[in-house]
Amino acid sequence: MTDQAVLTGIGIGTGLAYGPVARMAPAPAAPADEPSELGAERENARVAEAIKAVAADLTARGEAAGGSAQEVLKAQAMMAEDPSLAKAVAARLDAGKTAEWAVHDAFGEFMRQLQQLGGYLGERAADLADVSQRVVAHLRGLPAPGVPDPGHPFVLVADDLAPADTALLDLDKVLALVTVEGGPTSHTAILAREKSITAVVGVAGAGDLPDGTTVIVDAAAGQIVTEPDEAQLAQAEERIRERAEAQAAPLTPGALADGTEVPLLANLGSPDGAEEAVALGAEGVGLFRTEFLFLSAEQAPSVAEQREAYQRLLAAFPGKKVVVRALDAGADKPLPFLSSSEEENPALGRRGLRALLAHEEILRDQLTALAEAGAATEAELWVMAPMVSTVEETQQFTALTREHGLRTAGVMVEVPSSALLADRLLPHTDFASIGTNDLTQYTMAADRLLGSVAALQDPWHPAVLRLIAEVGAAGRATGKPVGVCGEAAADPLLAVVLVGLGATTLSMTPAALADVRAELSRHTRQQAEAIAQAALAAATAAEAREAARAAA
Ligand code: PEP
Ligand code: MG
């Protein structure tokens, strides 16, 4: 036997790749706390020059990369030039410290504050660490820390990737990404998904992989296999070939082998993604996350501003279904104008529809903007509410949408109470859409952003599947459509299970459409139901996955 090892982490997407490891160049050594020989004034000038240069470099990289990478890098450049950070650095320089130490120490303090906040902000700490290291490297006259170039294709292994690195990866060289840190919502994960890079994050032990070690990176299984043998490599080769075939297959509508239609829709967070979604065969939009448009807004957006964005989205899908979700604020997606910062457990607080009903004027403005955008375009507009937990909330949301002249209103099933009472909710609404990310978080009592409980955050868990089955059965009984728009729909085999449990449409990141389309086409409805029952009968998530694989 070889020294084979299997490391596990959180797979992003369903890609598979293999090749030799190349590790990220180490960050510059931490500066020592020494007194400055130059004096505060000259140190101040050095810091100002270094920060300006780093911000300019990040902005230039962003412009070269375009797309959402540009947004991310612009945000990072703004972090570098943040006035409160500058103040904290200046205070240390005035106390006689060196520029290097002042930057390192002041940025470190801000990082710790972000980490304590946790969630989305906590994951931004890595971005700040990257800025700090870039500034220190610049002060020392060293090149910016970054991605290695071993001269051949490689599997990039890093502690965590900064947006600046991820954005500029040469996709002809980087076969896959493996990071020690990072959860499913880290920038590495977000950008890997968007660029369809095979990635596994949160892999403890990956930091010990020596350069040049051959590894198989299997995102679907969330595994890294080191020193694979011939048979394993041949199997990997076969899966890569199958996947390439699926990616190149014609963009037919989603359907099972017996012709049962399962429309495949896109999850989008901005109208900018619409064109690519259409090119990848999206038959409409199953989840438009409107809160992503206003994450940095201090004030509630105006009707006109919203109408413009919604109209741009709807115009890209004439005659097609577009499901727009009302603002989902709170927990990992705080919106300053909708969320309370006082809650100790924001995931269990006034988020989603609860926040909207507490600020009804904001919901009314959004529904007005949607109705106007809908009237001005040819798309079939559906509107749904996030985080619905009761029949009363369902009735309230439906009444408000009708009042605004919106024809089709639905509820997201993301809380166990809604799944368990789906048969009583559905008569009061036009459709349901299951958000498996939150439904898993709330069923398993496992924070979806927390790496340490990521193993529990598994939508294959039979407890989650049983709740989905409840909703599917209620959909059939009431004749109402039941979609799935959480990440679970992007896992090809789980997508088959979801259909077997009664899902009538699936919505996912556009990069996953081809794999899901191919897998659905391999099973009839009867087979999908049998596969779903096999998974449902399991006792653990791992057994459910295994049972489904065996049944398929
Ligand atoms: C979900 O919870 O599954 C979902 C689709 O909503 P979001 O990920 O935006 O919370
Ligand atoms: Mg959700």
TrEMBL record:
Q: Does the keyword Cytoplasm apply?
A: yes
| Ranges where the PEP-utilising enzyme mobile domain occurs | 154-222
Question: Which UniProt keyword terms apply here?
Answer: Cytoplasm, Kinase, Magnesium, Metal-binding, Phosphotransferase system, Sugar transport, Transferase, Transport
Q: What is its main location?
A: cytoplasm
Q: What Gene Ontology cellular-component terms does the record carry?
A: cytoplasm
Q: What is its EC number?
A: 2.7.3.9
Q: Which reaction does it catalyse?
A: L-histidyl-[protein] + phosphoenolpyruvate = N(pros)-phospho-L-histidyl-[protein] + pyruvate
Per its UniProt record, what InterPro entries does this chain match? PEP-util_enz_mobile_dom, PEP-utilizing_PTS_enzyme, PEP_util_AS, PEP_util_C, Phosphohistidine_dom_sf, PTS_EI, PTS_EI-like, PTS_EIN
Q: Which cofactor does it need?
A: Mg(2+)
What are the subcellular locations of this protein? Cytoplasm
Q: Does the keyword Translocase apply?
A: no
**Which terms does the record give in the GO molecular function aspect?**
kinase activity; metal ion binding; phosphoenolpyruvate-protein phosphotransferase activity
Q: Where does Mg(2+) bind?
A: 414, 438
Q: Which residues form the PEP-utilising enzyme C-terminal domain?
A: 246-522
Q: Which sites bind phosphoenolpyruvate?
A: 289, 325, 437-438, 448
Q: Could you tell me which residue ranges the Phosphotransferase system enzyme I N-terminal domain spans? A: 8-124
Where along the chain is the active site annotated? 187, 485
Per its UniProt record, what Pfam families does this chain match? PEP-utilisers_N (PF05524), PEP-utilizers (PF00391), PEP-utilizers_C (PF02896)
What this chain does, per the entry, is described as:
General (non sugar-specific) component of the phosphoenolpyruvate-dependent sugar phosphotransferase system (sugar PTS). This major carbohydrate active-transport system catalyzes the phosphorylation of incoming sugar substrates concomitantly with their translocation across the cell membrane. Enzyme I transfers the phosphoryl group from phosphoenolpyruvate (PEP) to the phosphoryl carrier protein (HPr).
- Could you tell me which NCBIfam families the record lists for this protein? PTS_I_fam
The protein's name in its UniProt record:
Phosphoenolpyruvate-protein phosphotransferase
Q: Which organism is it from?
A: Sediminivirga luteola
